[in-house]
## 1
Amino acid sequence: MASVVDRIEELNSFSLSYPPNPSSIVFAETPRDVQGAVLAAVQQGRGIAVQSTGHGRFDTSDDAVLITTQRMTGIEVDPTRRTARIAAGVRWGQVIAETTKYGLAPVHGSSPTVGVMGYTLSGGIGLLSRKFGYAADTVLEVELVTASGALIRVTPNEYEDLFWAVRGGKGSFGIATAIEVPLFPVPSFYGGALFFHPDAIPDVLPFFVDWVRTLPDWFAASVAIRAPVPEVKAEGFSHLLHLRCTSVGDSRESSALLAPIRTLPGILTDAVDEKPYSRIREVHNDGAGPVAFTEKSRYLPYLSGNLLDEVLEAYPDDNGGLPPYIEFRHLGGEMTRSPVHANCVGGRGSEFSVTVIGRTDDSSRARAEKIFRLADAASAGQPVLNFQGDEVGPERVLAAYDPEDRERLLSLKRQYDPENVFRHGHVIAAPAAVPASWG
């Protein structure tokens, strides 16, 4: 049975920047609990905010009924069918612990603490996405509670229009209580991290961009300028270059592809080798949180040398404070192609994504904003929904989708959530809240 707690001031979240302030919180343990909470919120005339693990939520949820699914933690792996059915509160680390027992892996996020549901239904750029597509592309079924309180099964053959919309539409059309995803035979990988001295960044960063353009689809890579991590001896450095790679091809061929990077000067740590897939978290080695931070992102149709130069020129700062985190993630491969069953994930055809994360002290925030403005000017203005962070409002959410999909999404929102019950977080707004220029 669900627990309802009135006026809890704070609920655990990965980001401490936007603590929720709901009218009440429902800790759902079953789909029936979710149904009951939705019906109660509608009866009260309140909006609904949803939290599975709290990793990606940037919303104060003022006066909402906050439904948290963190207690829904079931995982069912079918090694014969190579599928996993995953409940709404599960994190990717938990899934990988179960699937690697069978030499299988899903298309998952870079951090083991990221929740499966929000990540996947926002699109999901994963370490295996160049090979297998966005996480949303692989979804086989979504169990969904709609604004009417109905519990429905959304598949390519049932509620086909919603199957298109929820795979990329995040929580705009209902609350997902479970999904089914395919698993791929990946018992091991060739990958890990290389850390470079900050003085090497002006040479390594443009080399990296040219290098990844030569890689096959089964080799994924990204690079980040970030604060030092405990695993690297970097006394006196304010920041490092962190290069991450994940290959599911032949290890000898993978090593040969990486060889040009290994000839570059300034390598402090090289931890790239053949690993069992259970060690996949070592590629990005993301922080466990929670911390207070700001976050923004953009798809980049093309990553130019001019942008790299501008970012490197803007990065130094004499005022101290924690440096911003800047990531360029190479896309392409299967992410550029239409999936077997179309969905509304935006940004296909983009060459890179860029994400800028800053701490909330004045110096760090100002540096992050300056760098993000450079990235924004070089982009088409399209956010990556998984990393949209503190960009809120109906215009910014719709901007995450391709222009030709926006009217269809608004029409489906009008059909399945006419009262805009699901209106908190990065969700599509009711048509009345959207400027006429957006359709």
## 2
Amino acid sequence: MDTKRGGGSMTFDEVDEMISSHKEEFLEQLFTFIRQKSISTENEGMTECADLLKAYMEESGIETKIMQTEGHPIVYGEMVRDKHSFTLLIYGHYDVQPADPLDQWVSPPFDPTIRDGRVYGRGTGDNKGQLMAQLLGIKIYKEVFGDLPINLKFVFEGEEEKGSVNLPRFVSDNQELLKADLVYTADGSSHYSGSPLILLGARGMLSIEITVKGAEWDNHSGNTGNIVPNPAWKLIDLLHSMKDENGDVLIEGFYDYIRSPSEKEMELLRQLPFDQKKIGSKIGYSGLTMDGESYYRKLTMEPTFNISGMESGYTGGGVKTIIPATASAKMDIRLVADQDPSYVYDRISDYIKEYDPDMEVEFLGSMKPSRTSADMKIVDVVTNVVHQAYNTKPLIQPSLSGSLPDYVWTSILQTPSIIMPYANFDQRNHSPNENIKLDSFFGGIKCTCTLIERLGEYDKSFEK
């Protein structure tokens, strides 16, 4: 590639050369970042990691400050050249999951190691490797091309692995500071086929627990059998009443306000690769029989109603003949664009209260869904960026099947948001032997450079 900017002599060939000649330096910077523990759920190393990240950003010329929240701090940075220029906000997180179980790691989780073309260590893929690729991409761009053609803002939080509990408040309180034309996130995994993947949103989530009580304490199942009611059966009957044999939820109002996918979004789903046998093998379910369009629609455009755990009575070794006093079920319910977790929770609560007023429902947490329209011009721009950076046409998925706090950008900040995973599909994030391929890391650096260049050429008036 030989793309010149502004009549200058610099080209993207020099970006490739810069990455190639500085690989060891870039890897060492990543290794230092990974060695610094930042386990948010255990509050280990969070302040130190935020300080380290701030130092990295300042070395690249980013005006940076640490902003406190009620939890772990947010590292905010900006490079604003002209308030009228296109502004890109880059989001990521510096916190990681605990490394347990330690005995399943081939090499120590906080001592990054290269094996077979991959860097192994906690946070390599989620999200320190992808975050660092973006910072290094910006650093290289400045060294090769000089001034940035756009404004950049950065929000790196320290609580993504514990549900981003303080991010919504932060965004709501700082809307003017965070004002941007596009939010860009490098997080998650690329497609299982190996193709680069663009995600235009994420499903939301509602977590609840249902508790049913019987007698005041566990009873002897012989002495009180047929006398004391068993709450486990009552819970099973309740759960069974909530869905029909086709899996459709029978709770009134559950499907209210769901945004129907556009024809373009459905066409994007139809274009996604689908290998029934391979996917069945990857998820451990050989009974998968649906076609590709149904698979992706159910995975991204429809809500779920999942029982994630049930507990009642004795489940240890041997036999304990009791009628349990309580039974409970935990549910995680994935929501799609325009569904409100509070509204859905109220509908479920109303249903259970009418079914049996003695049953209890507890709200455990929620996250709103998010979706950026596939019809927006900026989606085409980023698609072309990724195509150019990887020499491969990216796949576009209208929504992530899982949940990310993407709604803080699309709902609170009212800004389109695009997620572009740099990490490989088999990164094993949250698991032992988490990794990022070297090619994925260096590819992310180049993709970031390309993104900045092409957004500089983009006339944002097309969006108005």
## 3
Amino acid sequence: MIEKFSTGIEGLDQLTDGGFLRGSAYIVQGPPGAGKTILANQFCYAHVRAGGRALYMTLLAESSARMLAYVSQMEFFEGSALPDAMQYISGYGVLEREGLPGLLKLVQHELKRHRATAMVLDGTFVAQSVASEQEFRAFIHALQGVAGMADAVLVMLTHQNRDSSCPEHTMVDGWIELSDETHGFRAYRTIQVRKHRGAAILPGKHRVRITGKGIAVFPRVESALEAAPAARAEAHRVTSGHDGLDTLLQGGLPAGSATLLVGPTGAGKTTLGLHYLSLSSAQEPGLMFGFYETPAHLRQKARSIGLDLDTPLGDGTLEISWMPPAENIVDELVRDIVTRARARKAKRVFVDGLVAIRDSLVISERMPYVINALSMQLGAIGASVVYTSEIPELQLDQAMMPSDELSAMVDNVLLLNTGRRGHAFRRYLSVIKLRDSDFDPRTHEFHVNARGIAFGPDPRVAGSREAG
């Protein structure tokens, strides 16, 4: 079995089924500024930390000292690796004087002299500019052989947008493409593994972020989902935190299921979610992930309606995580939710505000598949998840929620609606579906008082004249 070297980027290792194959050659292609140089350096320093030796050869006019000035600011930089385990050299002069044959000899010589098990050739497009197409193809073919003979990984960087039919892509073992893209006013980076011999890659484009830590790759959660996830929790009920609602649900929510609370603003979705979280305990740890209300505001809101979140927050059986709604990378959010849930062995998970997740997606059509993937991963660890989602106010005589793909991707759907009757604001709750279970199909009026949600008309408006 061929040994694999980690790319130094967790998400990229996942895309490539474990990393780069030893004795293989790869092309990393992308426009200027897409992150090729950072990716290559990150790989080299990770390789050195794992006990390997790396060589970075540039064909660009830019000096190694100038590159080091930038790279040394990155968190992955390891100054103690220089110049023994990690070495920078320039091949620009040799390429100018001796062409591709001289450069090929230099690569072979330096790999052997440095005993490198990983090498980067930065600026492959420069080599192409000094030779014919036939000569360049022969050069790439020879480099592939050099990597195999040296039993090293060779990574070639180029900013040229070469078509997939170009011969060099058929010669190398792997081809990775970085892109800078725009959608409307939004700019974002992606990565795609176009080819990787002998590996079960995750196909398609995936989001990338570049920070002072280096490159982070976030595989699309729906493509990374295991084909056969672990079995869900045993068949029992998880109380919703409200006795009246549990009665409608024939005992509570099915364990390990995903529940969607849908309704207009002010319908009581978050309040119902706080009821659910208030029963967090050592036996059923809770996790909330929200976008619109801060943890401090939620605690105060819970106190105002008689719900105790302070105790589970104080003893560590409940965690509230808040992320401002912005241009977040949804795959990163999902990873964070699942990681936190696994670490806490959470049984109660509340995600408040699917609209924020939907609006962060570049391709909004991914939404139902993203939520399905999140629900599957949470269900696999025995967590029961409750989501909230905004919809426009429905007419009171509408018996069913509008059908959409998202509601089809969850196990249970509860519709919370609002309306004005008798010159008063009223709230209504309907159970639309419940996984493999019977339930009360009637619409029930409810209100919120100092003890939380209460079924029945609000006593303050019970005597109001009904609208004709």
